[in-house]
Amino acid sequence: MSQKLNVIKIGGNVLDNADNLERFLTDFALVPGLKVLVHGGGTIASEIGKKMGMEPIMINGRRVTDANTLHLVTMVYGGLLNKNLVAQLQARKCNALGLTGADANVIPAHKRPVEDIDYGFVGDVESPEKVNVEFLTSLAHQGIVPVFAALTHDGEGNMLNTNADTIASTLAVALSRQFEVNLVYCFEKKGVLLDVTDESSVIHHLQPSYYQELKNTGAIFAGMLPKLDNAFAALEQGVKAVIIGDAAELQDIAAGGKAGTRITL
């Protein structure tokens, strides 16, 4: 039987709040077995950019990454945030290693093609088959926990700003060839909600037929649909389960408890 491995992604609501981050890192360090952490940091990058006289450029809610913005997010994601997370995990006796997709060619990507909108140096990852699973498996066998910033590379010397959810799902699918993988998305809600204003309306188990029914009736908040579509795509490519839930409930989620929304086929 394959070893279990958790790929855990944290959103900005964890990174932006010192107390939330302290609690999360303590809980993450206590998650037993093999694990990978993926983080973004867009809000912090925007705040630092503003102090440097750089206003974020957003189109349809997505960041446009021009050359200066690429320098900014590389410094903030790959440097400031990533290395502080690693240092704090080391303090919790979790032997972490900070990485981007460029390191050891773990996550090759390509610059997003210009269609209606030019998003600049934004990376779309190549297929999970191109992920350097051998390197990640070697780290796992050494007891080293990879901590990935939301950055990839194009193989031609350019870093690329890349969606952290996509990085997490790509890693989860790739690692499912070697391990039994759970993909965990931690954010500020208790899970997928039937009523976005009611934290008690968590859908605890979501399968394709029920999801389609909820989509047809418009019951799920529209902003959650891309994450859920990606979740089912990951499951179809070998991931065991996807769990979406509150970062404050990570211990219960990782233990297979009732917290969060567990998505399966």
TrEMBL record:
Protein name in the entry: Acetylglutamate kinase
Keyword Cell inner membrane in record: no
EC number: 2.7.2.8
GO BP term, example: L-arginine biosynthetic process via ornithine
Catalysed conversion reaction: N-acetyl-L-glutamate + ATP = N-acetyl-L-glutamyl 5-phosphate + ADP
Amino-acid biosynthesis found in the keyword field: yes
Molecular function GO terms recorded: acetylglutamate kinase activity; ATP binding
GO CC term (a single one): cytoplasm
Compartment(s): Cytoplasm
Keyword terms of this UniProt record: Amino-acid biosynthesis, Arginine biosynthesis, ATP-binding, Cytoplasm, Kinase, Nucleotide-binding, Transferase
Gene: argB
Chain sites annotated for binding substrate: G41, G42, R63, N161
Family classification: Belongs to the acetylglutamate kinase family. ArgB subfamily.
Limits of the Aspartate/glutamate/uridylate kinase domain: 4-244
InterPro entries attached to this UniProt entry: AceGlu_kinase-like_sf, AcgluKinase_fam, ArgB, Asp/Glu/Uridylate_kinase
Function: Catalyzes the ATP-dependent phosphorylation of N-acetyl-L-glutamate.
Top-level division of the source organism's lineage: Bacteria
Primary enzyme class: transferase
Pathway connected to this protein: Amino-acid biosynthesis; L-arginine biosynthesis; N(2)-acetyl-L-ornithine from L-glutamate: step 2/4
Residues carrying the site annotation Transition state stabilizer: K9, K227
Organism: Rufibacter radiotolerans
